[in-house]
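This protein record is not my work; I was only asked to verify it. The record follows directly below this note.
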Amino acid sequence: MKKILFMCINMNIGGTEKALLTMLNEIDDSKYDITLLMLEEYGGFLNEIPSFVKVKYVDEYKSIKPFVNEPPKILIKRLIRNKEYLTGLTTLSSYSISKITNMVKNVNVDSIKSHINTAQKAIDFVSDLTKKNSTSNIAENLTKGPVSPRPLNKFFED
């Protein structure tokens, strides 16, 4: 006999739960040993689970539910307000590390290089401009355009 494990949060009345019940009722219970693992023991469809299905509950879910469902910033504020300092600081640390990891993972190095190159070209342009002109003429020359023999858009091309 093959074993099948299904998991759901609870048996609230909804489309997913109804589809699960329909599927459970269609499975041949002589060929399959079926277990339904639920995080919470409630819902309008609880009594509709077929009798041949073994139902198990994760009792520990109650203690971690706020960490899973509540937005991290709100959770951290609530923990600290309730004087659960260690848990609040641990959660803050985990949240911060997660954010930093995602930021580093999503960095587009080529884009950063392009921005640095553009900035360097702009700095070089201004540096060349200040070398070729006295400081009193810079403002006047900037309004006229670049003093370089190359057009300005050539400075910003890769």
